[in-house]
């Protein structure tokens, strides 16, 4: 398979102190990293694309490590998500190649993450934006951690590129009060509850 040809990365860190209510004692921190790479399958249909997932694994690990450093280490992370924007000369299935390398990278470095990493993908032009879904790292049903973070880059993805995203957060939405399973109620048996 082709080597991963990285053009650039884009990182973002948000600190949310309030959403119109009282100021949080500890702000919610959300971090995203986007890698802009060449799409080796752009412009043609390729039947056998799965081996490229193996090539993406080192990139996934580096991106996850960068996010952990932005947020202060694995013990700070409570939520995560991933996504991909595929340039116009590619196809949606190329974004599916990011599922395993992106998701397993975060779970590997976090050590105790049991929940599946939520994901989204789309085909888009230069400047396209993507809302990356976020859930709790150990229980997908923890409603307080249902969130999303918008990612994108002003000059990507070009038609022959992919923009691959990872997102991590340090806690629930600020002012979360919608009920449901709470983080302190997680049983940790199945990644759901």
Structure description:
- It is a single chain.
- Helices cover 20% and strands 30% of the residues.
- It has helices at residues 51-71, 92-96, 99-110, and strands at 6-16, 28-38, 79-86, 119-123, 129-136, 147-152, 161-169.
- Strands 1, 2, 3, 4, 5, 6 and 7 form a 7-stranded mixed β-sheet that branches.
- The mean pLDDT is 93.
Query: Architecture in CATH?
Result: 2-Layer Sandwich
The chain-level mean pLDDT equals 93
CATH topology: 60s Ribosomal Protein L30, Chain: A
Beta-strand percent range = 25-35%
Shape: globular
Write down the CATH class.
Alpha Beta
Number of helices: 3
What is the number of E strands?
7
Structural class: alpha+beta
Low-confidence parts, pLDDT < 50 over ≥5 residues? none
* Major β-sheet profile: 7 strands, mixed
Q: In the residues, how many domains can be counted?
A: 1
Per CATH, the superfamily is BB2672
* Helix amount: 10-25%
Rg on CA atoms, Å: 17 Å
Q: Could you state the order of secondary-structure elements as H and E?
A: EEHEHHEEEE
Distance between the termini: 39 Å
Brief write-up:
It is built from 3 helices and 7 strands, in the order ββαβααββββ. The protein is of the alpha+beta class. InterPro entries: AA_synth_put, BB2672.
Name the descriptors.
single chain, 193 residues, 60s Ribosomal Protein L30, Chain: A, 3 helices, 7 strands, 30% strand, BB2672, Amino acid synthesis family protein
């Amino acid at each position: 398979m082709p080597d991963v040809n990285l053009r650039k990365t884009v990182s973002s860190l948000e600190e949310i102190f309030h959403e119109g209510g009282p100021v949080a004692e500890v702000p919610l921190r959300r971090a995203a990293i986007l890698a802009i790479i060449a799409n080796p399958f752009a412009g043609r249909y390729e039947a056998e694309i799965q081996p490229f997932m193996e090539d993406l694994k080192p990139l996934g690990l580096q991106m996850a490590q960068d996010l952990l450093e932005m947020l202060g280490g694995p013990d700070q992370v409570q939520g995560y998500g991933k996504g991909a924007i595929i340039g116009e000369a590619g196809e949606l299935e190329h974004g599916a190649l990011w599922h395993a390398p992106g998701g397993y990278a975060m779970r590997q470095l976090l050590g105790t993450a049991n929940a599946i990493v939520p994901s989204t993908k789309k085909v888009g032009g230069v400047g396209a934006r993507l809302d990356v879904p976020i859930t709790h790292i150990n229980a997908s049903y923890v409603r307080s951690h249902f969130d999303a973070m918008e990612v994108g880059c002003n000059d990507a993805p070009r038609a022959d590129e992919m923009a691959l995203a990872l997102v991590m957060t340090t806690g629930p939405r600020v002012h979360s009060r919608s009920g449901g399973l709470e983080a302190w109620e997680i049983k940790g048996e199945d990644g759901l509850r």
